[in-house]
Amino acid sequence: MPSDKSLPASRPEFDYGLASGKAESRFVPRFLQINKYLNRPVASLLVRAVFRTRVTANQLTWMSFLMGLGGAYCLFQGKTWLFLVGGGLAQLSSIVDCADGMLARARRQESRFGAYLDLVFDRVTEFFLLAGTAYGVYRATGRMGLLILGLVGGGLYFLDLTLYYLLKPYFGETGLGESAESRSWLMFLIFVFGAANRLDWGIYLLFGASTMILGGSLVRFFRAPKEG
Q1: pLDDT at residue 165, as a whole number
Q2: Rounded to an integer, what distance in angstroms lies between the CA atom of residue 193 and that of residue 79?
Q3: CATH number at residue 57
Q4: CA 109/CA 78 separation, integer angstroms
């Protein structure tokens, strides 16, 4: 068992992975980084609790994934009180999603498989949460327009992510996880709008923000120096 002096908390450069989780996001300004100011500080408490246990980073990834699916199921039901529960599970999933990488870094057990497992589960969770939100709002309001707008907004969200990762090699960018801030804001806003019973506002915001990001990505691509 490691001594207290061997734990990352006693070494500022680790800080349970906080210092290592500095991936910048083109989607979210630095002063609005919700991971830095909310998710990672809370996730560090979870990392501290499980550091000496047999809980692995990949197990935390699975926990985050199952929480996200549970949240999507609650949102899908279209009931006001379940909007709050579903949003809460989405936000908890986001916090645990930060903890898995922090735990891996703190233990020096990072792996390529773990990184990609996290990415794959993130995308699957986002799909079900967005689909569950759109259909849940439709069940609650009976407004077909909101269902269509929610599904289109979700499609645009994934189109933005696809273009982002597709264009990374073109711009010479490397690394994983740079879209984490936009994902964390997605989860947080599902929680906020779910708690306020105004997920319809969230659908409008998702559609508008995703459209703007898509436009920005296309402008960036066409304004970049052309390669032969």
Answers
A1: 87
A2: 13
A3: 1.20.120.1760
A4: 41
In a domain, 228, yes or no: no
Measured distance CA(136)–CA(134) in Å, rounded: 6
Residue 215 lies in a domain: yes
**Would the pLDDT of 124 be above 50?**
yes
Cα 100 to Cα 98: distance, rounded to the nearest angstrom: 6
Mean pLDDT over residues 132-145, rounded?
Answer: 98
Domain assignment present for residue 198? The answer is yes
Q: Which two structure tokens, joined as six digits, stand for 9?
A: 């908390």
Distance of CA 196 to the CA centre of its chain: 21
210 within domain boundaries: yes
Q: pTM for the whole thing?
A: 0.86
CA 216 from centroid of its chain's CA atoms: 20
pLDDT in tens, 104-113: 999 999 999 9
Instruction: Give the phi and the psi of residue 175 in degrees, each rounded to 5.
Output: 100, 170
Residue of 161, 100, 96 whose CA lies nearest to 126: 161
Q: Please, are residues 63 and 96 in contact by the beta-carbon 8 Å criterion? A: yes
Residues of the domain holding 46: 4-223
**Residue 226 corresponds to which tokens in the numbers above?**
């052309």
Provide the number of structural domains found in the chain.
1
